[in-house]
Amino acid sequence: MGGLDDAGDILNTNSRTLAPAAVGSQVVLMSVISIIYEPKVKYHVGNKPPPRINDSVLFGWLPPLIHTKEPELVEKIGLDAVTFLRFLRLMRWLFAGVAVLTCGILIPINVVYNLKKVDSKNRDILSMLTIRDVSGNLLFVHVTVSYLITALIIALVHINWAQVVRLRREWYRSPEYLQSFYARTLTVRHVPKKYQSDMGIKDIFESVHVPYPTTSVHIGRRVGKLPELIEYHNDTVRELEQYLVKYLKGGKIGKRRPTVRIGSHCGLGGTTHDAIEFYTAKLKRTEAAIEEYRSQIDTRKAENYGFASMAAVPYAHIVAKILNKKHPKGTDIDLAPNPKDIIWENMNKSEGELARKKLTGFLFLALVCFFNTVPLFIISVLANLDSLTAYVTFLAEWSNSSPTSFAFVSGVLPPAVSGLFGFFLPVIMRWLTQYMGALTHSRLDRAVVARYFAFLVISQLIIFTLIGVIFNSVKQIVAQVGKKSFNEIISNLDTLPDTINRTYIDQASYWLTFFPLRGFLVVFDLAQIINLLWLSFKTHVFGRTPRDIREWTQPPIFPYAVYYGNTLFMGSVGLIFAPLAPLVPLAAAIVFWMSSFVYKYQLMFVFVSKVETGGRMWNLVMNRLLFCVSLMQALLILTIGLQYGFKSLQWLITIPPIIIVIAYKIYANKVFDTAFRYYNPSEEELRLAKVHSERADNKGNKLGKRFGHPALHADLFTPMLHANMMPLLGQVYKGKIGRDQAKLDEYGGQKMDAQVVEGGIRIAAIDQRDLEYDPVQYQRDRGELDWDARSINSTAMLDSGPSNTNFYGSSTTLLNGYDRDRYLAGGKSSTPGENFELTTMDSPREPLLSPRSQMYYQQQQGLDSTQSLALSIPPTMYNDGAMREAPVHRPQGSQSSVYAGVPMDRTMSPFQQERSGSPFVEHRSGSPLDERTASPRPYAGQQRQYSHDRGPSGGSGNMAGRGAYRGRVLGHKRAKRNTRPNTSLLQIEGVATKEDAQFYLGKRVAYVYKAKREVKGSKVRVIWGRVTRPHGSSGVVKSKFRSNLPPRAFGASVRVMLYPSTI
Fold this sequence. Notes:
By secondary structure, this protein is of the alpha+beta class. Among the domains are: 3-67, no CATH class; 77-175 and 440-540 and 556-677, no CATH class; 181-223 and 300-337 and 682-707, Alpha-Beta Plaits, CATH 3.30.70.330; 226-298 and 715-778, no CATH class; 789-821, no CATH class. The protein contains 38 helices and 18 strands. The strands form five sheets. Strands 13-14-17-16-15-18 form a six-stranded antiparallel beta sheet, with no helix packed on it. A four-stranded antiparallel beta sheet has the order 2-5-1-6. Strands 7-10-9-8 form a four-stranded mixed beta sheet. Strand 9 and strand 10 form a beta hairpin. The longest helix is centred in the middle third of the chain and has 40 residues, at 441-480. Mean pLDDT is 74; it is low at 1-32, 785-807 and 809-967. It is found in: Membrane. Residues 276-303 form a coiled coil.
């Protein structure tokens, strides 16, 4: 059975029975072929299928299209899609209002004025509806309407901007975002050479004293040509599959073996090879090269970019906001994008290389745009055929003999030519923008929207109008040549302002043909006629490989950049001509209403977003929309100035709307920008934020796996062939063919029967029932695979419960008495009520070393009973030294008023100035315990709690993930050499191997000893340090302290302990 039969069986399997007479209409096709018009019914992420369609009704897709509202759409199709639909809804209501204002106020005025003041020979039905021939004080009515339009736009933009910020706020708090690893990760770019290591990244963050420490860091590794090799390999697999299917099409051996010409240029030269043998040998070579490259990857050099994870999502946003535009050590630090969104080839570009590529890219872009303006001359001539009939004889004869075809060519053909030449421009712009160094696909989309929109406005509005002005001016001069003297022709140039005015207003008729064409293309988009024709052609002529069919059955990616750019351009045309030609915004309103419903269907049932960015495009399109208002006013200034003369200063009355727009833009930036870009947690959200431990993040190198270059673990394609063609492979390849199983890594490791041909190449047999892409595999590919501690089983078992926001389902449930978040963070051994290692240390409710850590208090013999080893020197009090750790971020003030006026010194914690009733400290009656060693009393206004505890301590002493998981330090030895009096070797309890010691690298260490002399009533001294590196293979680690250790021999009164800092 051929590729077309395979596709036909798929279509039949997924089709709804319907009367044959109905098939032929596009809307009926939507109800017939679900695999084409409703792929998301079968392929969707998680438990988010599109709304149910009634199969028994012909147009069963209409009710869900009409009745599904925004809250449900946010959860099912994502915020990017909802943002686009909200933009379309904004445009449709905006132009509905503009059409009411212009058609209801301006058209009656224009028509009445033309009927009274303009000779019937000098007007037509379209010119009567425009401002072209209107003069006098009636022009100020148009100015007034422009004020009303400006006010309407600002009001609608403000309302929708506020709603999108609200949606963004909900998105930041949704389970999908909060459980995503990338949401609490920062990217570090342009890392200097000396900091290009994991510890170097950590040092960069410590140098800027950010409020929250990193939990793990990862420096990028140079992968060389490995990405190119993998792409080369996969392209080779596609080529081999294509030639095999073409040769074995229909289950029969072709008459001639396929050949390929290598080394030819424009079809000339080169050598001819057997295509199947050539690509089989090529595939074998590339597989060997990739394996060799991957085996050497650990020896490659570090790149100039890296990543750092934070303990919680709010922490990452706070740090990113603090470091915005600060460039510590010359780096750029920002929130990390989704790893699927990153364009990895641009991550390691230096600033010099980026500057060179940007310059080259802009030059190429300018060249492309210049050559793309050439069709504008053709369009301008076609749009002005009417005016040429008086000078070109055959045009006059054509117009008289066939008015219909003449009207088609002059009216419909210009926008069709414009659309045809503009089809490839976004593709070229996207390629050039990627060449210029865009870091993510979403940023690439934003850059394409900005540049594509700018090109359309400059070329098809400004340059097109100028060409029309020049065209009409030359036409007038040509008409006067031979009839008037040169001086008379020159003297008639004073009519040029009127010519300019009439030209750009007369071009409104061109845009009235442009919008119906756009409306047709909207419906054409819905019908997907081009896709159907192309698939049919490819199936009949070339045959379709199993891979083609699998990829075709998946929902396609929605090209936001192209649709945003086209929608903005239509909006700019409608606004610019609103006060000049009221029919243009009316035509725009009709198209926007059509687009709103068509693209709602497309996004609900057909298309998906490549990567969810939470509606990041909104700011960009709102800025362009406000620019369109200014452009509308600029053209109105030109119109009033040409009518009254610029010396009269009457045109100044049209300037205030531009100032209003600029003022609103400044206001919007202050009100919306920060809330749009960052997650701004409240005190309550900070207190309840899920905090991940450093041990959990470092276990299994989570950051390196999530943000390592995808080429390091990319799946290589396995050649696939239709099962009914497999028996013919013996006639295609020479030699013995073995049988085995092939593991399809690109499809989740699915195993298929395969045949092994010469060179050890496995070709998998794909049966008819396996042609479609596996929906379960699709959910794994499209779902957030980097949710922390998630698996398919735990997701199915734990994901339930009521929603904790307006739009997103809750991720917190109880399972047999267990809190789900705690289960995922701590594992099944965690018991209810146990205090998980999710607590930040610098909490007002907890002393620096709580009695839960009984290991620190078990050996106190040798110390004075009145002396406590509860450390009174938190890291937040050190303001100097290389080992400084920044204080916990206090968004609403760093200290409570309870501490005001209390003298502090560097040996005292701000939380140890008053005696406390804290349950963490055991008070002994009559004990002369120093007040400075006690925990603080809860102060008034206890709602300001920055601790991230999820419950009271179970008293288990579980310090897992907080710096003392293995237990106390069993032994220590100061360096023998006097040149290093601040270093010491430590043996940690439970650490016996070098691998175990790796966990403690970077952890804080407290060296506590009893001195002879008292300071403020205490003989206890503390010297802080960090674990720097393993020493040998027995688990001993080396530590470096911020000051020299005492030179005398250590006695029983000395303690060295791991400090339970925030991890």
